[in-house]
Structure formats: structure tokens, C-alpha cells
Task: inverse folding
């Protein structure tokens, strides 16, 4: 992608970014007390979609330093939502995997967000809901294109799994 885009594309991009971020913030804010943090959801979502990973791989996928995830990974492990095992290729590292309980916690959190969003769009017309559905599919397509350009393969999961997005969850 070039850094110089025509002004109408920049304006459209800004409006889409603002809407996507505000919607994600509202979904997180409307969850029940004690719900998993956004950081924990991003880690669990990544592990669910892409499989086991090292702390370094998780951090790189989220554009963070591995030290930034230390507390999150420790809490997830203590809660039984992820497990760590020594990497067979490099015994100095641990490989982190989502547990069955972690999968259930992630699914429960996503279901809560889905219920909130379903209530939020209930007042829209069928055409407006179809436009949003198309926009969601296009955002997934853009995200997959970006991942492919960075050397990652697009998620093999369905759109519901990808709704936990690396960028958002």
C-alpha cells in the first residue's frame, strides 16, 4: 500500500477507523463485570485461530514487547485458560496453547458481545443490517490481505472466529 492516498480515501479510511474502534470499545465496555480484559481476549483469540505460539510470537502479532504480555500470560495460565510447555525445538522457550477452558471463556465473551451487537442493530432496517454485514466481510478481507502481505496466512476459521481479530480481540 502506498503512503500517499487521495484525500477522499483518507477521509473514508478515517471514518471507517473511527466507527470500528468506537464499536469495539462499546462491545468491550458493555460486557459483564469481571469479564476478560481486551489483552486476554486478544491472546486467546490469537491462540484459537493460529494455534500454539511462543510469547515472542504472540507479542509480535500484537506489535508488543514480550515483557508486555508477561502478566497477561501468567494470569491466563493461573486461571487455566492457557497452558505452557517447553518448546521441543528450543528448550529455552515455552509454547503457549489455549486450553478447553480458555476456548469456553473466549466463546462466552464473544457470545456476550454478539448479543449486545444484535440488540444494537435490531433497530436498523434490513438494508442497513446487510450493509453492515458486507462491511464486516470487507474488513475481514482487508485484514487478511494485510496479514498475507506481512507474511502470515489468513485465518482458516469462519467469520465468527475472526471476529475476535488480532487487531481487536
Result:
Amino acid at each position: 500500500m502506498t503512503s500517499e492516498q487521495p484525500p477522499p480515501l483518507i477521509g473514508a479510511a478515517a471514518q471507517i477507523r473511527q466507527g470500528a474502534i468506537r464499536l469495539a470499545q462499546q462491545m468491550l465496555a458493555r460486557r459483564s463485570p469481571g469479564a476478560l480484559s481486551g489483552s486476554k481476549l486478544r491472546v486467546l483469540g490469537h491462540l484459537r485461530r493460529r494455534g500454539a505460539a511462543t510469547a515472542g510470537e504472540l507479542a509480535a502479532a500484537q506489535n508488543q514487547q514480550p515483557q508486555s504480555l508477561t502478566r497477561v500470560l501468567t494470569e491466563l495460565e493461573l486461571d487455566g485458560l492457557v497452558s505452557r510447555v517447553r518448546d521441543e525445538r528450543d528448550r529455552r522457550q515455552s509454547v503457549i496453547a489455549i486450553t478447553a477452558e480458555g476456548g469456553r471463556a473466549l466463546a462466552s465473551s464473544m457470545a456476550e458481545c454478539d448479543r449486545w451487537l444484535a440488540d444494537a442493530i435490531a433497530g436498523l432496517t434490513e438494508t442497513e443490517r446487510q450493509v453492515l454485514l458486507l462491511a464486516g466481510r470487507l474488513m475481514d478481507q482487508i485484514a487478511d490481505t494485510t496479514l498475507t502481505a506481512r507474511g502470515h496466512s489468513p485465518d482458516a476459521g469462519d467469520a465468527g472466529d475472526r471476529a475476535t481479530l488480532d487487531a481487536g480481540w
